[in-house]
Design a protein that fits this description.
The model has no long low-confidence stretch (mean pLDDT 88). The chain has one domain: Spore Coat Polysaccharide Biosynthesis Protein SpsA, Chain A, CATH 3.90.550. It has 292 residues and is an alpha/beta fold. Helix 1 links the parallel strand 1 and strand 2.
């Protein structure tokens, strides 16, 4: 059985599309969909679907954040394979079947999908999203080819239930921590490039910093928890010149150089707020409104 877990918070405007995108997939395996959220607005929309389909179950969490919500949802899950996604993204109708196929190999512990930006490329932040999602895809493919470690994206990934760890509620990058745990259990992570998940990225600098501080900065937090560096400014900076292949005109050349400056500033903020512990988890984890 497959348990599809959809976490959400104040996403009553997008949750219906997220649920429907899952239902549009033609899964041959028996499955259930668990929708977990703390707010009544999101839960009310989800309950419309659960009233029509017995495979859909709605769970109210305590509002302590995504890691706690995932712990609760997994405790309800009946499936041997978990598919994790969010209430503000939607999956392609042909995403879930190829996401599950690699589990035929008993040593595969997790499989991430391929996040695709829905932002318009002809804007500054749309271009940044285009570059970063494409380079992330290339790096996953290169890692698979060279048998190197890489990590799941929380927008869409599948994992064997027995490998899912208990998550501390202060985690910022639960996908990075889960991925590390898969490797520590001597399993491998595969990649399904064809399992597309469509994501709306930030469209202003304030939200961009909020989101990236949670994701990139969360890996620095994990280093403090487990003593292993899995992402850093140094690692991220290597191969930066390769991004110029995404430049097709003078405007994009300018935007790309702004991206380099933005990433430098981002890592300064990360080291200040996370590495030196000047802000709490609640202060760092802030809702990114422009992605909804």
């Amino acid at each position: 059985m497959i348990s599809i877990i959809l976490t959400a918070y104040k996403e009553e405007k997008t949750i219906a599309k997220s649920i429907q995108s899952i239902l549009n997939n033609n899964l041959k395996e028996d499955y259930e969909i668990l929708i977990i959220a703390p707010d009544k607005e999101t839960l009310n929309v989800a309950q419309i679907f659960s009233g029509k389909d017995s495979k859909i179950k709605v769970i109210k969490d305590n509002g302590e954040g995504k890691p706690s919500a995932l712990n609760l949802a997994v405790s309800y899950a009946k499936g041997e394979i978990l598919v994790l996604t969010d209430g503000d993204v939607f999956v392609d109708k042909n995403s879930l079947v190829p996401l599950l196929e690699p589990f035929r190999d008993k040593k595969v512990g997790a499989v991430p999908g391929n996040p695709i930006s829905t932002n318009y490329k002809n804007s500054l932040f749309g271009y940044w999203a285009y570059v970063l999602t494409n380079i992330a895809n290339e790096r996953r493919l290169t890692a698979i080819k060279n048998k190197k470690r890489f990590f799941c994206s929380g927008y869409l990934f599948a994992i064997r239930k027995n490998l899912f760890p208990n998550l501390a509620k202060e985690l910022l990058s639960e996908d990075g921590f889960i991925s590390h745990n898969v490797y520590e259990q001597n399993y491998k992570i595969n990649y399904s490039e064809n399992s597309k998940v469509y994501v709306k990225y930030p469209d202003n600098f304030s939200d961009w910093i909020k989101q990236k501080k949670r994701s990139a900065g969360g890996y620095n937090q994990i280093k403090k928890l487990i003593g292993t560096e899995i992402r850093s400014f140094r690692k991220e900076s290597s191969g930066g010149l390769g991004l110029f292949k995404f430049v097709t005109n003078a405007k994009e050349f300018f935007w790309l150089n702004l991206l380099f400056l933005a990433r430098i500033y981002l890592w300064f903020v990360i080291y200040k707020d996370i590495n030196f512990g000047k802000k709490s988890h609640k202060e760092i984890w802030q809702r990114v409104e422009s992605t909804k």
